[in-house]
Amino acid sequence: MSIPVSVPVPAVQQRYPSVFRPVTVGTLQLDHRLVVPPHGGGNGNLMGTEDDFEQHVALWLAKVRGGMQWIGGGPNFVRNPLPIGFEPTGVGAHGPGFFRHPLYGQRMGEFASRVHGAGGYLSVQMVLQGGMPIGASATFSGFNDHRIAHELDIDEVHWLVNEYGDSAAIAIDAGVDAIEIHANHDDIVQWFLSPITNHRADAYGGAFEGRSRLLREIVADIRAKAGRPFTFGLRLCMDELIDGGFGVDECMSLMELFTADGTIDYFSLDVGGNWGAPSYIPIGWHEDHEWSSLCGHAKQATNLPVVYAGRVLTADHAEHIISSGQADLVAMARATMADPELVAKTAAGAPETIRPCIGLNECIHRKLVDGLTYACGTNPQFARERTVRPTSTASPRDILVIGGGPGGSELAGLTAEHGHRVRLWERNPHLGGAFAVAAKLRGNRRYANWIEYQAGRLERAGVQVEFGRTATADDVLASGADLVVVATGGRPRTPDTPGVDQPHVVQAGAVVNGLATIGHRVALVVEDDGPAPITIADHLAGLGHDVTMIYQTPGPAPLVGKYSVGTMLARLDLGGVHMVPLARVVGIDGGTLELAHSYSMRRWTIDGFDSVVLACGSTGDDALYRELKHVHPDVRLLGDAFAPRRMVFATRQAWELALALG
């Protein structure tokens, strides 16, 4: 089956000759080299209610309609060999799995049919997380989860091989195009492959041959039970990046082994695990496609197609990777969450219209940390693709937005794109608000990409932007706007601590903006659970300051999830940042700080500081809203002006408000 796609304009074809070059992967005939790897993070559910299923399909079809030909679909869980009544726990833990569900064949068949109808190919990635609670050995895989696994016995191993084979046959019969074994990221297969988690003394342990036996038997069983030709791949970890773990040499040995067996059609490669520095979902502190050269090294072990996955955000990145021989195809997950039309916009020669991913990792952390629905900070429609935004309004309104931060600029762009007449007043000479200040920190340098995109978007949408405009109630009333949206952000919060008014005590934002000078030894007082304090500490350490973080919580940044915090903590440690947990600053006297334990109230002092920097969050600046709410017929409050939160909260609220306006 040949998948039709929009033919790139000649200039694009010249710029991306490797990306837009056809390739064959098993039974798949692809017209370009960009693919969407299997990933979770949507708000749908293949095996949930009808509405859940429709949302699951809508998320993936948006990517196909946006130009992606080969999509991975979400993870499909294999049945876990558990005794009756045992409850598996942890991210990705699953008991009954998907494949044996009575609706699975019907649901997967319908999903595959719709993907084919839209011109795409569909994969099923088979997942069974290790340590939840099963493992090759009774151990654990890292340093942040010490729950001991149940060691599978020989009968359970043989049962598992058979279950993989039977399950894959069900998916193939349903009509999927490709099967991929999830053999990394703490999957049970990875637990058998890795010497850090496989301490067995039987045929499935010991040297490389024994540790690879389970995967070889699973692959053979799937091939034997498949009722028709299909494309078969392995998702492998090039390097677990942990002492004593699975590394690139063994990854290459696996690739050589399966290439010689002739049972596999492609390999998909990344690095890291479910936590660490990096996790397999690297944040923006890392370089883009940082491990693609390692993929190029691993690629020497096979003549089969190799897919590289690992923070690839643009077609330019992909072109470099492919043209350099580092991979044959490039996987783009988060980039297509930020903009599912990435391929179509690239092919049309309009890269400036692609909404950028900036590595916030909200796509995974909002669910895991906040218990909320999955979301993307830069694309508020991600994970709710089934909700159709209006392309035009039958009742255009005159809208005035006060504040050009994430919430205000997103609302202005959305409503202008809907056909409303929109003005935006911003007191600074640029968009972004506090987000623009954050963009000056070295860990957040990619935030500027979103601000630049947003500026171009507002211009294309016809928003009248006035910079250097500080709004007053009289100005707003004189504007004649039908609707006023107050998105004035927050004000830096100063804690009520004795001594905080001394001249060497300054706000972090003032330091970042160059409005305050600090000495060498810095005490960073933290009363903010988000990523800002830890990013500020890293930035100051990078400038050569000796930084001590003092925070009241058991760990820094409790609202930063495990897929991001490992990189942050590693760099703070390497940068010499000192940490004082569970400590409240109850007094500042020159270079001496009096501390109190958060729970026991025990007091002690630390001293020798030249400066004290406050990273204590902000309070909503809603003064203008309070002035206007009783004198203007329609005033709304948006984003941090209501209650300071992370970027994703403001952009999602803007999306909901724009949708309500019609």
Description:
The protein has 22 helices and 28 strands. α10 links the parallel β12 and β13 (329-331). With 662 residues, it is of the alpha/beta class. The strands form 7 sheets. Strands 3, 4, 5, 6, 9, 10, 11, 12 and 13 form a 9-stranded parallel β-sheet that branches. The protein has a 5-stranded parallel β-sheet with strand order 16-15-14-17-28. It folds into 3 domains: 10-370, TIM Barrel (Alpha-Beta Barrel), CATH 3.20.20.70; 398-492 and 620-661, NAD(P)-binding Rossmann-like Domain (Rossmann fold, 3-Layer(aba) Sandwich), CATH 3.40.50.720; 505-616, 3-Layer(bba) Sandwich (FAD/NAD(P)-binding domain), CATH 3.50.50. 33% of the residues lie in helices and 18% in strands. The longest helix is centred in the N-terminal third of the chain and has 21 residues, at 154-174.
Topology:
Elements: H1 10-15, E1 23-25, E2 28-30, E3 34-35, H2 50-65, E4 70-71, E5 75-77, H3 104-117, E6 121-127, E7 134-135, E8 150-151, H4 154-174, E9 178-183, H5 188-193, H6 208-211, H7 213-225, E10 231-237, H8 248-261, E11 266-270, H9 292-299, E12 306-308, H10 315-323, E13 329-331, H11 334-338, H12 342-347, H13 362-370, E14 398-402, H14 406-418, E15 421-426, H15 434-438, H16 447-461, E16 464-467, H17 473-479, E17 483-486, E18 490-492, E19 505-507, H18 508-512, E20 521-526, H19 532-542, E21 546-551, H20 562-574, E22 578-580, E23 583-589, E24 592-597, E25 603-606, E26 611-615, E27 618-620, H21 623-628, E28 635-637, H22 647-661
Parallel strand pairs: 3-13, 4-6, 5-6, 6-9, 7-8, 9-10, 10-11, 11-12, 12-13, 14-15, 14-17, 15-16, 17-28, 19-26, 20-21, 20-26, 21-22
Antiparallel strand pairs: 1-2, 18-27, 23-24, 24-25
